[in-house]
Design goal:
- The chain folds into two domains: 72 residues; 168 residues, Collagenase (Catalytic Domain), CATH 3.40.390.
- Strands 1, 2, 4, 7, 8, 9 and 10 form a seven-stranded mixed sheet that branches.
- The protein is built from six helices and ten strands, in the order H-H-E-E-E-H-E-E-E-E-E-H-H-E-E-H.
């Protein structure tokens, strides 16, 4: 009788320990998953951009778009670059890109919100003009109009300015669903240093998609550690209580 109850004690302790490990693992997964994840996701494909930059006006000078391996950049501590609400944040973000201008690679950042691009507002994209950095709102980049957004911001990188709101054109600031480019715009594009040339594939542009994440605040880390400690204390007390109960029953038997 005593041996059976001792085995029950051991089994109870083992189950409590296993349960504790399970809850701790789940807590770590949820905590670090929430801290490391960003609402933003990368959504980009070469095909629609190829169509824009190979339209009839380019003739034999069409441009192929190549999407390079993606990268991730983390916001500096105390700054959330997933939500761009100032020009200073945009400048900081563009400074974190893995590629410099000499590389002739376009760094395309994906973020949650863009509330500043020269002026305050609600934007779906922003880019240096000319330059090699652009940023787009991740949610908009998942819509059917994504190629117009990415193509428009890439146009700025290539040196293109906005056109009048009434003109059906890729560079219309309102993204009116047109991907048209006129002869002057095409000439400007072909003169950009971002347009590279290979004897086998002709003209091409390299784009590197970049996901923007954030670093947790010190307060977040503190709360996480406190949560782990409290979880451990509760589980330990439950295990001790279960063992004590069984031992008491064993003593009575």
């Amino acid at each position: 009788m005593t041996i059976l109850k001792s085995n029950a004690v051991t089994a109870t302790v083992a189950k409590a320990a296993a349960l504790g490990r399970m809850f701790l693992a789940l807590s770590i997964m949820l905590t670090f998953g929430g801290l490391a994840a960003s609402a933003a996701v990368i959504t980009i494909s070469a095909g629609p951009l190829d169509a824009i930059y190979s339209q009839a006006g380019f003739g034999t000078n069409s441009i192929s778009i190549f999407i390079l391996a993606s990268a991730t950049v983390k916001s500096p501590t105390g700054t959330d670059l997933r939500n761009l609400d100032s020009n200073a944040k945009i400048d900081t973000l563009f400074g974190l890109g893995p590629d410099n201008a000499a590389s002739r690679i376009v760094d395309a950042f994906f973020v949650d919100t863009i509330d500043s691009c020269g002026t305050a507002g609600d934007f779906v994209g922003c880019a240096s003009q000319p330059g090699h950095d652009l940023v787009v709102q991740s949610a908009f980049a998942q819509t059917d109009a994504k190629e117009f957004d990415l193509g428009h911001e890439l146009g700025h990188n290539l040196g293109l300015k906005h056109v009048d709101n009434a003109i059906p054109n890729l560079m219309n600031p309102n993204l009116n669903g047109s991907s048209l480019l006129d002869a002057a715009q095409i000439a400007t594009i072909l003169a950009s240093p971002l347009v590279q040339n290979d004897i086998d594939i002709g003209n091409f542009i390299d784009i590197r998609p970049i996901l923007v994440t954030t670093v947790p605040e010190l307060g977040t880390w503190a709360m996480m550690l406190i949560g782990f400690a409290l979880t451990g204390i509760v589980l330990r007390r439950r295990a001790v209580a279960a063992v004590t109960s069984l031992r008491n029953a064993d003593a009575k038997g």
